[in-house]
Fold this protein.
Amino acid sequence: MSLATPAILMQPMGLFLKSMTGEFGWTRTEFSSVISIAALCNALGMPIAGYLVDRFGSRRIIAIGTVLGCASYASQSLARSYSEFVAIMVVTVFTSNLASYPAFMSLAQRWFDERLGLALAITSTGLAVGVAGFSWLITQTIAAEGWRNAFVTAGAVALVIGLANVALLVRNDGRRLEPAGAKGGAFVPDASSTVGEALRTSDFWLYSASFALIIFAVVGCNFHLPALLSDNGASPGQIASVVGIGAAGSLFGRLFTGVMLDRFSVRGVSSVFFLGQAVGFLMLLDGMRWALPASFLLGAVQGAEIDVMGYVMARRFGRTAYARIFGICFGITLIGAIFGPLAMATLFDRTGSYDQGLWLLPLLPIAALVLLWLAKPIARPSAIVADVRALA
């Protein structure tokens, strides 16, 4: 996961902004539009990647995605115009998606059952490690050798690590672990759902809408957070500290959520993080005073969301079509990442301040929590085992 699309491509892309806009004369809006295009391609590519993983197995698809994704990433160094850069970016997103969330989350849920939450958490934590490592590598290479060599260097390093990972560590698991039984009215599938069966349930759309609202809010706010803090008089050092605390919150959210999902209900764990996000938005209304804890809360829910999504997709719909179902859900969720920043920018342009957005954003995690509670509750592994033993 440290080599997934968001780690090597999406999140560190801002590091290339000044170098590339300075060389080509692009506006920052033009450069930012490339990121929006990439996010849209990411949303469209996730279901495709999920289908291929379910059809051919994770290991083969990860290997192909690693080679093609890293090669196309490095080829961005060859861009000579805006249209070339956009075209190569589109190819990079689609190919690198093959070695991203659907493949690795599918592997985790096939190998682990009773501690599924923790397994998914550790898997997704690789994303935070990748963002930190490749951001440092890219920054140092741009400063020493320029942005073109930064693409080549990062792509080559990712290729070596990725192929070593596939050769030594990645293994498909043929087991089909399916929990059985129910307790307290909670839903536990007796057999895996097909994609069509999952899409025909209200639960799938309730979960997808819930996650989309969360990502709409947090990405919309985090994208504008440096500008928001600067408007409130924060220094570059203070802004860097706040952003760093958000990254720490994301790492905490991923690990803590995984542990909690194995012990408590999805509804209970989600309530803590979703309501924490609402509080974080309100804290930012006071400028720098509460910026550090606010950033931590926002980062935590962004990290927690992927764990919750991976967990409920496995528990609610089973494992046979997991990668496809997860990929479709994740693709829908990414729509929020496309429109969240645009919504905040529109409010700022109309009012000259982010305050109106910060007052409205807390409504979204509350609405997301309501949608999640409307879906059928998911039984915990301990309850499932207890039911099986009681029946025996």
Remarks:
- Confidence is low (pLDDT under 50) at residues 174-190, 383-392.
- The radius of gyration is 21 Å.
